[in-house]
Fold each of these.
Amino acid sequence: VDDMLVRMFPTVRVSFTGIRPDQRYAVLLDIVPVDNKRYRYAYHRSSWLVAGKADPPAPCRIYAHPDSPYTGEQLRKQVVSFEKVKLTNNEMDKHGHLVLNSMHKYQPRIHLVKRGEGASGLVSDLENEEYKTFIFPETIFTAVTAYQNQLITKLKIDSNPFAKGFRDSSRLTEFERETMESMLAEQHYFRSPLRPFADLDTHNNNLSLEEKAILAARSQL
Amino acid sequence: VDDMLVRMFPTVRVSFTGIRPDQRYAVLLDIVPVDNKRYRYAYHRSSWLVAGKADPPAPCRIYAHPDSPYTGEQLRKQVVSFEKVKLTNNEMDKHGHLVLNSMHKYQPRIHLVKRGEGASGLVSDLENEEYKTFIFPETIFTAVTAYQNQLITKLKIDSNPFAKGFRDSSRLTEFERETMESMLAEQHYFRSPLRPFADLDTHNNNLSLEEKAILAARSQL
DNA sequence: TAATTGACACCTAGGTGTTAAAGT
DNA sequence: ACTTTAACACCTAGGTGTCAATTA
């Protein structure tokens, strides 16, 4: 049985500043439901509408960035890129991939976990750890098994190297690109008029996201 | 500049028995010179002959298996396979690959390193660690930039999936395969008439190697 | 009707030996 | 004369959207 299995694209990429160089950290990603609703896409309005109550929630899993644990030193220099995380709609998935319900809205979250001298990159139970969670509302997306909006399709074909084979026939026009951007801007405006700034403990730490990449974030299932 | 860069094939694969299930270990691989000589290949005799003193030694690097650290539990169940380790003849290599001199003889070594609660998979200085080294003389090989013996070429084409494209024209005949095996058996007989058994600390630990794979071990540079 | 699946062609990414050319 | 390099075709491995068929 072939599961529906995809990477996220665009990739969630996150950078950290102001953390302790000699401290060790794990960087985790999970994806949680935004609300308790199921959605459908209204083609004539080009927008998502509520279509009832949410399906039974999928098991919430956590993805540890494979380069974890990082030293604070490394985190200051590198952008942490979650290009390899995989999403599936198979509730029975045995490979530890993140499980989502199609046609539901999701919020990716980043967890920065302090690692004592013990412990590997793995974090079995977050509740026992000292950590901080960062949320970027502009990364909210709706999970799908097939694209609902052709602008999204075109945007992904334009920007994902693996879809290069479809580029000739579907380049975004200038007009489409502008339409796209205004749609996204509008969504962000209503959701998050003020950009949240996050501090890590008492060390005046900021987390900034590669906003350009994230602005286009729409992952299919 | 493209460095000469190859994986080892056949792969060094090692399994452990009798170790502590709850202890954490790193598994390392390095490759050290067997002697202080440089070799040349005598085609008419199909054997390696001493061709003078060794060239200045390449920097000796250590490759940590990327799945390190392992728990003893994992090590009991899984075979540790070093398929991803890369060899180069570029002394200036900046990627941390293992550096060898062509036309010299080498001995791969496996290091099993006890990891305290601290520390990641990385081991910066082996001398500060509690570890045990395992050596299998049958894995000795001569580094080359081009194959000297066509039986080796054919054997690798026959057994490496990535060389599938050359198989039709160069399958090993029954005779060639037998010749090959007797050559290898002879070499092993002279080098290592008795199979070494290794204990780890005082815990009655044995290390056994996937002998079949290793018997054919000849890696080019 | 709307959503999901699976076979497919087309890519990226990278591991092979071959061969002719270059290096020593 | 021997060794090394670099471009190449041919693979493995796996990430894309498409489209027709299937599911619910």
Amino acid sequence: DTSIAVDALSQEGLSEEAVQQERDAAVSGGGGTWEIAVGGGKKKIRRRKGQKKVVEVDEEDELEGGDDDDENGDTGGGCYERQREHPFIVTEPGEVARGKKNGLDYLFHLYEQCREFLIQVQNIAKERGEKCPTKVTNQVFRYAKKAGASYINKPKMRHYVHCYALHCLDEEASNALRRAFKARGENVGAWRQACYKPLVAIAAHQGWDVDAVFNAHPRLAIWYVPTKLRQLCHLERNNATGSSPISGIANNSAICLY
Amino acid sequence: DTSIAVDALSQEGLSEEAVQQERDAAVSGGGGTWEIAVGGGKKKIRRRKGQKKVVEVDEEDELEGGDDDDENGDTGGGCYERQREHPFIVTEPGEVARGKKNGLDYLFHLYEQCREFLIQVQNIAKERGEKCPTKVTNQVFRYAKKAGASYINKPKMRHYVHCYALHCLDEEASNALRRAFKARGENVGAWRQACYKPLVAIAAHQGWDVDAVFNAHPRLAIWYVPTKLRQLCHLERNNATGSSPISGIANNSAICLY
DNA sequence: AGAAGGACCAGTGGTCCGTA
DNA sequence: AGAAGGACCAGTGGTCCGTA
């Protein structure tokens, strides 16, 4: 029975398209596929990026049919495999990922989508006189999922927040890093790690106050500062100071690490 | 064994006085009394307000001995009654409550104390490079308790937040309300209820944005807007608008409810 | 191996309701 | 009755680790 999924959606004022797609996903046996679950106005962008079938032979149907891997022959029945988003690869700015991969422009686009979902949640809250979130909270992720953006989830977005931060704060540096890591053939994890260092340098110039750095940028202010970035800034501040941690905070302009 | 309470305190850099008092409370059999648990630098203020023994015959010891009510004769043993703070009564500005009561100046003073505890928590967090609370959170209440201010607790502070808000935002109106309700012999609950209306009026003048009203005042911005005040503002906005809730927000200056 | 995300967990905001 | 606050609860921020 699909009534639960449809009921949940019917309260949110979604397009009939999204409801229909969610219904299809529910019918498909509990698993569904990411492709099917992607709904509403956000789907177009995702489609554009999803250039599949480099090795595969099956032409995908827009609404039905799985994104079957070779080892999974269970196509005819009601049992889809549990599909995940394609992994990210390091791409240059403007470059579309080929194969079963997603590029970094697409990654950053997800942050913009989350911002739009937050704005919608805020508007609803204001209208109802309820307390209004200023950050991308669990509530926003839940809203995004109901709106059909099932490819957005909290662990992923939190994982790459600092990469998005660098993209917002110093797009040139971010682009240069992407090109360098692509040229070197580094994987996404290595690129992600490398994004921390320039951010710490930016924080250093702002008195080591990474919260202030985030809050000063309107698109970044809606994201929680990642724990690891905060810790790195704290460690570097104490190293850079060259004295007891007690002094801290005020000595920002004297020392430049990078 | 008192080691747990002492250990918890020893990490917070408290005065030995507070630790000793906590130990006494623990020894006293799990109950302890509020008087004993009150410790550290904050105690003085509390003492000043606590003018007891109007009907009672027992002179209180500063550190030992309960604040025994007539019906409780269990004084000699290790079993203290579970003491609560004296209830609030409506007092005029500057008036000290008599008998086993606390006055409203004392109530508002508790909010100032919480602010000081928040500032301490913030300073510790900044020093450690941890995320820094902007509001009076559970963490702050926990810190206050460990610091010996056991008379501060979350339900009480949340209960009277809007009364403190009126005191901050329009002290003249707050004082007038206190005098009027005292003159009429109203109880604290009635006074508390009456504090909502002038706050809604203030919010009305600020485009019904009660969050903005709180945030604009530095001592108030650290407190969460109470749910009921938020709801009242929302209801009044829709009533005042005289049309569909869709219009909302922009029509602030035209209509004055009070 | 490298990576995506379901699902868990400690501690939160909120306040009810057993207590005095 | 009026009031103080321990203690509970649903939903949070954070991220681990079983999964693909």
